[in-house]
Amino acid sequence: MDERRTVKVSKYLSKHLRHQPDRIGITLDEGGWVEIDTLIAAAAAHGFRFTREELDHVVATNDKKRFAADGTRIRASQGHSVDVDLGLPAATPPPYLYHGTVTRHLDAIRAEGLRPMNRHAVHLSADRETATRVGARRGRPVVLAVDAGAMHHDGHVFHVSANGVWLTEAVPARYLRFPGPH
């Protein structure tokens, strides 16, 4: 499977397993799972054909491990805007986590902290390199450090997805460390 096809199938899966399952007539269960055969048939019925082998390739090779499969079912690992419960247990975060963004969002972040926007949780990275890559998707990246240890001490709950993304409801501005002059 060539890289362009892999990306195309991955984006299709992300759109329909995270945001718009109803658009192709599938229903995710409470944990975000759908039968693979049901997904493939629904996609084909809506004009996007892919094989089980292509799906397995995307799941196995996605650099961010965006999807989880259990043999007969598939789900997105995190990032949903539809209502699902991934069943992730609370986890103790490392002292600092990181969030990649771009300069144009910094004023709002300073005022409001990090909010989930259209997702269920704020996504945080365990290292600066990953946060840099996340921020770079939208322009020149800015990496914010999150005092996750203090947040956890103050009662904020964290979860970590199967692919290593840290999730929390929101990050108040007081827990953020901005680079450079404030």
From TrEMBL:
Its EC number is 2.7.1.-. GO terms for molecular function: NAD+ poly-ADP-ribosyltransferase activity; tRNA 2'-phosphotransferase activity. One of its GO terms (biological process) is tRNA splicing, via endonucleolytic cleavage and ligation. SUPFAM superfamilies: ADP-ribosylation. Keywords: NAD, Transferase. InterPro entries: Ptrans_KptA/Tpt1, RNA_2'-PTrans_C, RNA_2'-PTrans_KptA, RNA_2'-PTrans_N. It is an enzyme of class 2 (transferase). It comes from the Bacteria. Removes the 2'-phosphate from RNA via an intermediate in which the phosphate is ADP-ribosylated by NAD followed by a presumed transesterification to release the RNA and generate ADP-ribose 1''-2''-cyclic phosphate (APPR>P). May function as an ADP-ribosylase. Belongs to the KptA/TPT1 family. This is Probable RNA 2'-phosphotransferase.
